Amino acid sequence: MEPNQSIAYISDIGAQGLQPLFIAGCTVTCVFLDLSFFAERWLRHTGRLAKNMGIAEKVLSGLSIICAIGGACGLVLLSIFDTVRHPNLHDGFLLLFIAGYVISAIFICAEYQRLGVHFRQHRILRASFWMKLFFIIIEIFLAAVFIGTGYTGHTSIAAVFEWIIALIFTFYVFTFFVDLLPASRDHQNLTNLEVGYVDGAMPERSGNGYAVDGGCGFDGSTDGIQTEERPKPPVAQNY
Description:
Number of helices: 7
Number of strands: 0
Oligomer: single chain
Distance between the termini: 47 Å
Largest sheet: none
Order of helices and strands: HHHHHHH
């Protein structure tokens, strides 16, 4: 801390005796957050979440993952190259961390905006879009104030804004729980589809059961039993 500084930066605390814990915490945060990006992409690809309807949405999703990986590298490296022994490197990696995740959020918002055109009935897409847009606007504003107050010597004020940026980032991490929650809700519907239906029709039964086509027995006759219209499978509630 500087002589005129009354509030410590997060980096000041992490650069002292708590540095191993600081590095471990940053690493765990990055790993699980970036895994959320990959999980969301996989769930959209498999249809557990609202599927990307065009190439542009897939490209936006890929760009958001790349930027998130860059932000994750920045967060891990800034915890290793602390502000006491490597101040210039630390500031550079801090900028990479903030810029990486903010740009990633911009790509996600663009993807969700396009998804909303095809899935207007899914309110959770709109909710997640607005939460991430809030993160983008607030983080850009706070980062500008943080950089400005730090370079003009108002270190205590800059430290306050650094803590606020960290809290807003925690809120951003929580938004991915909201994004992935519908996939858990749809698990039972998907299980019903796998167990009770095969390509939109009832599966074959053993013994004197009935084949999928025509509702007839294995010998091709109805054996005097009236067949009913095959029920349609339930529609999974993708978000």
